[in-house]
Amino acid sequence: MKFSFAVVAAVLVASTLVMYWMGAVTLQKNQAVSQQQQCIDQLNNFLSTMKDAETGQRGFLLTGDESYLRPYLDATGQISSNIAALNTCASRGEIRQSDVAELHRFADEKLAELTRVIDIKRSGRGDAVAIVRLGHGKSVMDAIRDRVAGLVIDEKNDLAAASRTARRYTIFRTTVFATTALINLAFLYWAYRRILAERDRRETAALDLQRQKDLLAVTLASIGDAVIVTDVNARITFLNEVAEKLTGWTLPEAMGQTCDHIFHIINEDSRQPVESPVNKVLRLGVIVGLANHTLLIRKDKSEVPIDDSGAPIREPDGSVRGVVLVFRDFSDYKTSTAALLAAKDEAERASRAKDQFLAMLSHELRTPLTPVLATLTAWEASEDLAPAFISDVQMVRRNVELEARLIDDLLDLTRIAKSKLSLTLEVSDVNELIQSVAGMYQSDIHAKGIQLTMDLGAERHHVDGDPGRLQQVFWNILKNATKFTPIGGSIKIKTTNERESVVMTFTDSGIGIDSELLGRIFQPFEQGAGDFFRKSGGLGLGMAISKSLVDCHGGRITATSDGRGKGATFTITLPTVPPPAARKAETVAASKDDSRRLRILLVEDHADTANAMRRLLAGLGHSVEVGQNKASAIEKMNTTPFDLLLSDIGLPDGTGIELIREIRQRHRIAAIALTGFGMDEDIAKCKEAGFDAHITKPVNFQKLDIIIRQIADARAN
User: Fold this and answer.
1) How many other C-beta atoms are found inside a 10 Å radius of the C-beta of residue 106?
2) What's the CA gap between 99 and 148, in Å, rounded?
3) Going by DSSP bridges, is the β-strand pair 294-297/303-314 parallel, antiparallel, or unpaired?
4) Up-side HSE of residue 264: CA atoms within 13 Å toward CB?
5) 3-class DSSP state of 430
C-alpha cells in the first residue's frame, strides 16, 4: 500500500508540476498577448491624439473660433501619458526604446509646429494658413503615421505568434489534466475501499479514546487540588468539584466564560488585579505560577489565599490547544507560615536576650580578673620580687590569661558557631607554647603518676598565630589526655617538620577512642558513651573549639586510635614562618624616659581594678589620675591636660561611649576603651564613638603597654 501511495503521489506531484509549469507558460503567453494588444492600443491612441491635435489646429485656422482648439488642448495634455505608456511597453521589451524616443521627438516637433501656427493666427502678425501650406507639419504627421503603422504591424505579428503558442500549451495542459484526472479517479476508487476499512478502525479507536477521556475527567474531578481547563481563547471548558467550591461557580455556569471572570485574582498587599496565569501561559507557551500574596475573589466576593500553576495543553505537533490551571487553598499554609515567623521572631528575641546575658556575664567574669592580672604583671616587672617567686608569678599570670581566654570562648558561642573567632596574630614559637602549657598542667600530671615525655625536635617551630589561642588548643588536648589516661600511664608530645609545616603529635596510653566516635570527635557536645565519660564531666566543646581554632590558623587537626584501651593520638599541622629577628629587650627604664612619660586619666569604677592598674602604669613611669565616673572624668579633663584616656564602658552615671563623645567635642586626646564587653558589636561601637583602640578585660598589659608606647612615640615626634 505504501508503494501505491508513493506511485500515485509521484504521479500527482509530476502532473501537478507539469500542469503548473504549463499553466505558468500559458499565463505568460496570454499575458504577453494582452500586453502586446495593449501596446497596439497605445500606439493607436498616440496616433489618434496627434490627429486630434492637428484637427483642433485646422478648425481654429479656418474659423478663428477658440472653441475649435479644444481637441488640440486635450491632445497636448494627453500626449505625455501616451508617451509614458509607450515607455512602459518598451520596458517590457514589446517595442524598442529608440522607437519610442523617435515618436516622442516627432510628437514634440509636431506640437511645436501646431503651437507656432496657432500663435501666429492669434497675433495676426502673419498668414498662418500659408505657413501650413508649406507642408512641414504634414511631413511630420506623415512620418508619425508611417512609424506607428509599422510598429502596429510588428506587434500584430508578435501577437499572432504568442497566441499560437498559448493555444498549444493550453491543449497540452488539458491533455495532462485529463490523464491525471483518470489516474486520480482510479486511485480514489481504491482509496475509497481503504477508507471504509479505516473508518471501521477509527470508530473502534474513538471508543477507546472516549473511554480514556472519561477516565481523565473522573481523575480530574477526583484530584485533591482545584483544576480549571480552558481552550486557546482562555474560555473555560472544565472545572472539577474542588474548583467549583473554591471559586463558587458551578461547571454549567462557568462553561464558555473567560477564565478572568471566573478565576478573578488580586495581589493581597496592593489589592491590584494580577494577570491570569492562563493568559500568561497562552502568551508565553510555558509553565507559570503565581507569586505569593495572591487572593482569589470568589463568586460571593469573599476572598481566599491561593497558590497555583498553569501549564499549556499541547497537541502531538507541539501546538497549544488550551491550558490546565491547578490551584489550592493557601489558608492553612499561610497560618502555619505566620506561626513559624512568630516562632522565628521569638527565637531571635531569645537569642538576643541570650547574647545580652552572655555579654553581661562575660563582663562580670572578666572584671575581677583585671586587678589580679595587673598585680601579677606588676610583681613580674618589679625588681623587689624574689627570684624564687618569679616562675610562680609567671605561672599564675599565664593561668589567669588562659582563664580569660576560656571565658571568651565558652561564653561567646555565637561567634564560634559563625566561625568568627578573633585572632591576634604574631610570630609564635610552638615549642615554647607547648612547654608553657605542660608547665601549667604539670601538677595534675604528677598527681596521677603519668610519665610525660617531650621530644620538641622540630627545627622550624615558628608559626604566624595567636599564642593564647594555640595554648588553648594544646591545653584542651593535654587536659583530655591526662583525664583519660590511667594512673601510671604515659603521654608523649613530639614536634617534627614536614615540608613547610610543623607537625605536633600528642600520644597517650589512655582508654582510646571507638571508631564510631572518631568521626564525631570534633563536633560540639560530643562525648564518648559509658559511665566513665559521664563521670569525667565536661560539655564536649574542647575538641570542637580546638578544630575551629586550628582551621582559623590555616592548619589541620586529626585524631586516630586503634580502639578501646589502646590510647589515642592527636596530630596538629600548622604552616611555619621564619623566626622573628632578634630584638634588644626593652626595659622598664626606657618606659620611664621623660620623652615617653604620659599623663593618663584612668576612668574605672571598680576600685580594685583602678588601684591595680594605677600602680602598674605608675610603675611604668606614667602619671595617672583616676576618675570613678563620667562626671568626675569630664571635670578632670576640663581642668587638667592629659595625653591618654583609659576608660571603662560601664560607668555608674553613664557609659564610656557617652563620655568619649562629649570629650571629642572639646578635646583631642588618645583614648583606649577598657571593658569586659568583648562582642564584635561592642568593639565596633567603641571605635565608632571615637575610641582609638579597644582592649577586653582582663587587660593584656603587654598589649596595653605597646599601644601606650606607640602613643608616646607619636607625641614625642
Assistant:
1) 19
2) 9
3) antiparallel
4) 16
5) helix
And the C-alpha cell for 26?
A: 500559458
The better pLDDT of the pair 569, 283 is held by: 569
Quickly count helices (H) and strands (E) in the chain: 25, 21
Using DSSP's 3-state secondary structure scheme, residue 699 falls into coil
Residue 8 has which C-alpha cell? 500515485
Cβ atoms of residues 461 and 502 within 8 Å: yes
Instruction: Collect all residues with Cβ–Cβ distance below 8 Å to 491 and sequence separation of at least 6.
Output: 445, 450, 451, 452, 453, 478, 481, 482, 485, 506, 507, 508, 509
User: Does the reported pTM lie above 0.70?
Assistant: no
Q: At 258, list the grid cell.
A: 473567560
Which run of H or of E encompasses 488? none
Q: How far is CA 25 from CA 90, 170, 272, 542, in A?
A: 21, 9, 64, 99
Angle (nearest 5°) at CA 691 between 687 and 696 = 80
pLDDT value of residue 587: 37
Question: Is the four-CA dihedral 505, 506, 508, 514 of positive or negative sign?
Answer: negative
| More reliable by pLDDT, 128 or 656 | 656
Owner of C-alpha cell 615540608: 499
SS3 277: helix
Q: How confident is the model at residue 505 (pLDDT cuts 50, 70, 90)?
A: very high
The closest alpha carbon to 567, from 496, 622, 506, belongs to: 506
Which residue bears the cell 602619671? 623
d(CA 349, CA 347): 5
Can you read off the three cell numbers belonging to residue 103? Answer: 515618436
Collapsing DSSP to helix, strand or coil, 122 comes out as: helix
Q: Beta strands 654-655 and 501-508: pairing type?
A: unpaired
> pLDDT of 26-84, one tens digit each?
677 677 777 778 888 888 888 888 888 888 888 888 888 888 889 888 888 888 888 88
pLDDT tens-digit readout, 552-587: 899 999 999 988 888 999 999 999 999 986 433 343
- Strands (DSSP E) found in 499-614: 501-508, 556-560, 568-575, 599-603
